[in-house]
Amino acid sequence: MAQEMPALFLSQVERYYPQSDAPLEVLRRADFALWPGEVVALVAPSGTGKSTLLHVAGLLEKPDAGEVFVGGLATTKLDDSGRTRLRRTEIGFVYQFHHLLPEFTALENVVLPQRIRGLSRDEAEQRASELLTFLGLGERLDHLPSELSGGEQQRVAIGRAVANGPRLLLADEPTGNLDPHTSQHVFATLMALARASGLAALIATHNLQLARQMDRQVTIREGLVVALD
Ligand SMILES: Nc1ncnc2c1ncn2[C@@H]1O[C@H](COP(=O)(O)OP(=O)(O)OP(=O)(O)O)[C@@H](O)[C@H]1O
Ligand SMILES: [Mg+2]
Fold it and tell me: Which end of the chain offers a freer environment for a tag, N or C, measured as fewer CB atoms within 10 Å?
């Protein structure tokens, strides 16, 4: 049997930011594999490169060196449209702030990415409605983002991120703006979704209580991804 492919594999990834003197080296030959179905916490102090790592993994930024494999596919040689297509189908991204479209309902926010991908309105609405119901928002489909609580907004953002059935979910402090109780609820919902769909997820968080509930914990030390001890 062929060996299983990582959902995400960073190989010798380097990322520098130019500065007036020497460049700021955020990632230095970082290696990291995320396996299908795994939910991994990324816990590291502010400024160590969590967002940078997630942006590189999510094809939002290119590494300065090294390779990013998504589902086994090397991504650095792809052109912009190839990267966009891969991002749209294979990767879901959740941010600290929901970034929902304010003029659109919860349902429409989850429909939209599917329409962009070419699904019919009926198919997209059906899937959006099922997803939001799974996320506990079956009674909130027609609410605008401004008519939802912070935890509800984040659950819609999670629904939007997975609307196109990606195999990889990247989340950058998805509960960072929420109180501890709501954080736990949103996280538990995300975890249930990941388990139900076999998603691989890498979740940056400063919340150690959440981190401990994930399959394993990694950190960034001197530009490398290492196990958190
Ligand atoms: N576009 C940029 N240009 C220059 N430097 C940057 C840029 N983006 C990030 N940095 C620097 O790179 C380092 C890593 O930033 P990053 O945002 O990845 O940290 P983080 O671990 O996500 O922190 P936080 O927990 O505060 O979100 C920081 O020192 C930051 O100042
Ligand atoms: Mg960050």
Answer: N
Quick check: 34 and 202 in contact, CB under 8 A?
A: yes
Residue 52 Cβ < 6 Å to ligand 1:
yes
122 C-alpha to center of ligand 1: Å? 41
The token pair at 119 is 């699904």
Cβ partners under 8 Å of residue 3, min gap 6: none
Which residues, chain by chain, have CB under 5 Å from ion ligand 2?
A: 50-51
Radius of gyration of the chain (CA): 17
Class of 8-227 per CATH? alpha beta
CB 137 within 8 A of CB 153: no
- Whether the per-residue pLDDT at 43 is higher than 90: the answer is yes
Say if residue 1's pLDDT is above 50.
no
pTM of the model: 0.95
Q: Which of 42, 51, 172 is the best mutation target for the ligand 1 pocket, counting ligand atoms within 8 Å of the beta carbon and taking the most?
A: 51
Predicted pLDDT at 3: 61
